[in-house]
User: What shape does this take?
Amino acid sequence: MRRFGLWLMGGLVVLVLLVGGVIFLLSTPDLPHETVRKQYGQAPSRFVLWSDGTRVHYRDQGKPDAPALLLLHGSNASLHTWEGWVKALSPKYRVITVDLPGHGLTGKIADGRYGYDGMVVFLERFVAWMKLSRFVLAGNSMGGALAWKYTLAHPEQVRALILVDAAGVPRKQAGRLPLAFRLARVPILRSAILYITPRSLVAEGLGRSYGDPTQITDALVDRYHRLALHEGNRAATVARFATYATDVAIPPLSKIKAPTLILWGEKDLVTPLDMSEIFLRQIRGSKRVLYPKLGHLPMEEDPQTTVRDVLAFLQSL
Assistant: This one.
């Protein structure tokens, strides 16, 4: 029995050493803020440092006195995802984009709250700091869920709502998420993301997110990868996925009274098309536009086509 115990202990030591060796060989260290900022935080980027030490990266473009739009990116993305829309909307509107907590060049935040409740608080604070009122709120994926949650909490603030392949409602299809998302949902594997985030993992995720993966460029993968490695972002991702519930009940979307536009890529594997039907049924008077060739990121995949529908919607308000 003693010999068996020694053998078992020796085996465990070898296993720990092997795992540690693999992590060491495959590990990708965090990138310092200033290193990533030099590449992705130049003008028109702006930064504000709040009193609690939270640094926020945002862009405020277009006509300062025009109606305002606030655009919220999705999980593991950044404000750069909206640049196609910003270019088209800026001549007529004030367009604000922001890196959400644990994303892009905002990185870690002081209170360490990266779930939806914490993000709503962050958004409340950002909206107050920007002195926004009666603005159009748009969001993709996680940002879409944040958009409708904020609208429910502050209906008086939101003039209109735009949901782009939004999250936060049940899906019928499962098991088709990017590998990084699937790993982040498994507690025993989640922490590995803190140390191992190869560029190939990011490329795989984008490949599942785009309706036509041939559109994905090296520069696009590099941007997503380097911003994911920005100091604090991977730890925030691990914390955020730990807050996600596996079974989500349909939220009280029927309480949303703001005019709502639903945009959805029919090739979306992350938030499948059946999820858009929930928003369409629950939000009275909402309008849906589908894109047969696009995936999870319609505004990034084809900004010219998608923003035309946004402009038509805004002009109808």
Remarks:
- Residues 4-26 have pLDDT under 50 and may be disordered.
- The beta strands are 45-49, 55-62, 68-72, 94-98, 135-141, 158-166, 260-265, 287-291.
